[in-house]
Structures are given as C-alpha cells and as structure tokens.
Design goal:
Shape: extended
Helix content: under 10%
Number of strands: 7
CATH class of one domain: Mainly Beta
Mean pLDDT: 92
Number of helices: 1
Length: 144
C-alpha cells in the first residue's frame, strides 16, 4: 500500500523528512527569568514581556494576562512575537498609574511540555514533589 498525502491521495513521489534532536529539555518555566518593559502612565504603549525560550503559542494567548490592583483584568490587544518568546498587551484604555500584576496560568507550557515550576518528564525513581501546584503565578509591576 502507498502512503496517502494530506488529501488522501497516493503520494506521487517518495518523501523523506530528517530530524535532528538534542538533549531532553527538563527545565521548568521560571517567571523570574521573564523581563518586562513597562509602559508610561497615560499612554496606550504596549506592556512587553520577553521570555528566554519559546512557549506554546496558543497557550500564551489564553494563559497570560494583566490585572490591576483591584484584580480586574486589563482589556486590550495581545500580540505574540519573536518566535513565541515575546508577549505584549496594548491596552484598550490608557494605562493608569498604579500597581499591576502579570498573571500566568499554570497551564502555560514551553515547546517540550514543561510548565511553570514543573518539568514535563518525571523520573519515576526520583523523589516526587507531591505538594499541590499553584493555579496561577504573578509578577507585580508598577506604572508611574
């Protein structure tokens, strides 16, 4: 039998795809390594968050946000760029001076499936941390 293409038709010619793999990535995400570029108050400049490695694009869209000091989410347009290493928010309304928090849900993953504080791969022979995982992580910042 011949291998079908994306439309279910037999391939017209042989196809080969080569992969190069490296060592396993078992490093959990660490929000302390993220860098924030904080906008000026009264502006609609973007808040820019830079990460040291690419994260899952779809999860970045729904698992990262910004809250004001009253716990209300800041509405605006989210952009993901720089090969999934940058998340930014352009607010719908100008930034007010005050305390804010970047909020990341525990579902956020890198491309290897590692989450914040938790590696994807677990060594079954190593001691396992059985503490309850946090559902969200925050990075406080201030707009002046």
């Amino acid at each position: 039998p011949t291998w079908p293409d994306a439309e279910g038709n037999p391939l017209q010619a042989p196809f080969e795809k080569r992969f190069t793999v490296g060592p396993a990535d078992t490093t959990p995400l660490d929000p302390a390594t993220w860098r924030l570029r904080v906008p000026a108050r009264g502006s609609t400049q973007r808040l820019v968050v830079s990460m040291p490695e690419p994260l899952d694009h779809a999860l970045m869209r729904r698992a990262i946000g910004v809250e004001d000091e009253a716990g209300r989410y800041v509405n605006g347009e989210v952009e993901i760029g720089n090969w999934e290493t940058r998340w930014s928010l352009t607010p719908s309304q100008p930034w007010a001076a005050g305390a804010y928090s970047l909020v990341a849900s525990s579902i956020l993953e890198d491309l290897a499936g590692n989450k914040i504080g938790t590696a994807f791969e677990i060594d079954v022979f190593a001691q396992v941390d059985d503490t309850t995982a946090r559902e969200r992580f925050t990075i406080p910042f201030e707009i002046r």
